Amino acid sequence: MAQNESTTTTGSAKLYLAWAFVGVPLAWGVVMTLIKAMDLFAG
Amino acid sequence: MSTATTAGSGSSGWLSRERTIAKPGFNRWMVPPAALCVHLCIGQVYAFSVFNKPMSLLIGGDQPAPADWSIPALGWIFSIAIVFLGLAAAFGGAWVEKVGPRKTMATAALLFGGGFIVAGFGIATHQLWLVYLGYGVLGGCGLGLGYISPVKTLMTWFPDRPGMATGMAIMGFGGGAFIASPLSVFLMNQVGVAGAFFVLGVIYFIYMMVGATIVRTPAKGWAPKGYVAPTKSKGLVTSANVHVDEALKTKQFWLLWGVLCLNVTAGIGVLGQASLMSQEMFPGVITAAAAAGFVGLLSLFNMLGRFFWASTSDYIGRKTTYMIFFALGIALYAAVPFAGQIGSVALFVLFYAVILSMYGGGFATIPAYLKDVFGTRYVGAIHGRLLTAWSVAGVLGPVLVNYIREYQIASGVPKAEAYTVTMYIMAGLLAVGLVLNLMMTPVDEKHHLAAEPATA
């Protein structure tokens, strides 16, 4: 019962939304950490 | 094929396994975000220390009052949570296998979010036992169940790339602290410490429930296009299944237990002391603020390593991946004192960045290693039991680093050189891990379940 991902009917919008839901907070956290990490090379 | 879909939970409610079976056309890439919804939340535990100082000044304000909670007393909150994480993962694994991912995620959401609420009442009424019970016991159980909840589901959706799939989820656990730390500080400034716990409890509950809502298990017989499940074992990769109770009777389980424990011991000891170590090894060069940046950078590599190494292991094999962790780790730990001697901050940061990437990689690659060796069917429960190695390493690593440092300083060794012996001992631990990994062989057929192909 193999399926092709490219022929799935799960909406692309739903997929993007799901990834944005987890990706945006994670990206925000990473950026905040990188800003803090800049202090290591500031001096 | 043997999928999660066959073992019912005895219920047809929304939380049941049956209700999570994906309809035809479901895109499997919807499942990693479901797992990340859980792991990004429970990864908060790595950022719990942001609460310590504010919680130690609840009565006194700027200065601690006699009735205020001491830092050692507050330290127990995190320790209790980690102990219950290990216990829940070890003893809850079989239940997770039975009820499926949605009920497990929802239970984890209730425990973790509810734990914050109970702890919030403890802070509001200044009763520490309530905080221990809330965040430590309830939250810790939520941590353990949440951690193992998506592992098997991801592997059944991605039998062609199990390392990458679980690496994504476990990367979220490493990244959760990046979100929790600034968010917690912001909330404490807005609504106070107890208020922050209440708000975080609600946010985490909702966020994890989104994961429980969108998670799906594949229908019986599903396989990704072009994927043919192996019918014969090849090297360490078995086509059979081993029952969780039987797995504990194999030498392979305990070898992997040792592999994980030693890899984590080396990394966690350094991570906990990274700030102090960097300042003492480079006095006057690395300031307190720069050291905080160093810790943040290490955490970032810890997170990225989870995805990178677990994904890489799909191509080079799990045993080879761990060989790299141990062999490269030995070289890097041995080279750290050299970086200190020549005063090279860049080399010091580079060495530790790679070391911490392999620390995270060790966590993220182990589920796929277990799947290879014991099959897919009970991998969630076996993974849960293996996580007791984490609990042991969580005590062993920091104790080793702290004790040896203090002994060295008491013996008259300058602070800048007090970590040299520690680094060599860490390299020695990794050498033992290397040997254990080399001893890994396929599980004897007598441990296999009868006629259970390990396809997903």
Provide structural commentary:
The complex is a heterodimer of chains A (43) and B (456). Chain A contains two helices and one strand, in the order E-H-H. With 43 residues, chain A is mainly α. Chain B folds into two domains: 4-214, MFS general substrate transporter like domains (Growth Hormone, Chain: A); 244-447, Growth Hormone, Chain: A, CATH 1.20.1250.20. Chain B is built from 15 helices and one strand, in the order H-H-H-H-H-H-H-E-H-H-H-H-H-H-H-H. Chain B has helices at residues 31-42, 52-55, 71-99, 101-124, 128-148, 151-157, 162-214, 244-247, 251-281, 288-316, 318-341, 345-374, 379-386, 388-410, 420-438; one strand at residues 223-224. In chain B, helix 3 (71-99) packs antiparallel against helix 14 and helix 9 packs antiparallel against helix 12. Classes of the chains: A mainly alpha (43), B mainly alpha (456). The A-B interface holds A 1-5, 7-10, 14-15, 18-19, 21-22, 25-26, 28-30, 32-34, 36-43 and B 24-30, 33-34, 36-37, 40, 172, 175, 177-182, 210, 214, 219, 221-227, 285-287, 289-294, 296-297, 299-300, 345, 349. Strand 1 of chain A pairs parallel with strand 1 (223-224) of chain B. Chain B: This is Major Facilitator Superfamily protein. Chain B: It comes from Fulvimarina manganoxydans. Chain B: The chain crosses the membrane at residues 29-49, 69-92, 104-123, 129-148, 169-188, 194-215, 253-274, 286-309, 321-339, 345-370, 382-401, 421-439. Chain B: Residues 1-445 form the Major facilitator superfamily (MFS) profile domain.
